[in-house]
Amino acid sequence: MSVIVRVNGRSVGEGAAISALDHGFLYANGLFETMRALGGRPFALERHLRRMSESGGVIGLPIPAEDLLAREVAAALEEAGEEDAYVRLTVTRGVGAPGPDPATCGEPTVTVVVKPFPAPPARWLREGIRTVTSSLRRNDCSPLVRVKSTNYLECILGKQEARRQGADEAIFLDTRGLLAEATAWNVFFIDGGRLLTPDERGAILPGVTRAIVLELAAAQRIACERGAYPPEQLVSAQEAFLTNSLYGVAPLGSVDGTAIGDGAPGPVTHALAAGYEALLERHRRGGP
Prior knowledge:
The chain is an alpha+beta fold. Helices cover 31% and strands 30% of the residues. The chain has two domains: 4-116, D-amino Acid Aminotransferase, Chain A, domain 1 (2-Layer Sandwich), CATH 3.30.470.10; 122-283, D-amino Acid Aminotransferase, Chain A, domain 2 (Alpha-Beta Barrel), CATH 3.20.10.10. A hairpin with a 3-residue loop joins strand 13 and strand 14 (248-255). It is globular.
């Protein structure tokens, strides 16, 4: 399957042109959601659309109605004809005058991209994701840290920093030196038999998959706590994992060269990953 691109309700192909005066291009004034589609249907679409709508309220970006966005995603997936796909929905401020004044903009620009699902490296499942602590700090005082903005430069810098050190991912701390998140993942770890994760008041994007995993943990009667934690607590954890909407639950193998636990995915990670995969399989078969 080639990449499918739709812009404002029209299929335009990979060479799509968006105005150079769109404030999403000029000033990264926009939001996006990344989803996995199985059986030709996006998983957890309602949650993603709800988060986009709420984030639009934070930055003052008028988000089109959820049913319209859902139809655009469905149209792109139908055109793609792909059973297992990556989906990205982007809403930018739209065309306006040069200068960072959104009042000059017209209707927002809606873009949907669909491509085949990129399978994760097999090494992640065997050994876990290798991470380093980023030298950058998430600003826990900024409202932007809690929205999925098209300004992804901080994450890109973190990813580049990790790659230079031979790692897969970077872990951000906040301005207080406490655990925040990875460049595209939320962080969970097991300490003293409890499942811990940085809470929503910190410098994290409240992930859709993070919320689902918290629900799975409650259903499996795994003691869970959301709070503020120093990075040393992650390094000394019995096991740890990362979550995002493309890859679900992925074991975290090491931080700054130090293995987490015995260096292999732990039992809680396996249990929650299995629970999440069961939800995906039910969705694939046409369930909710």
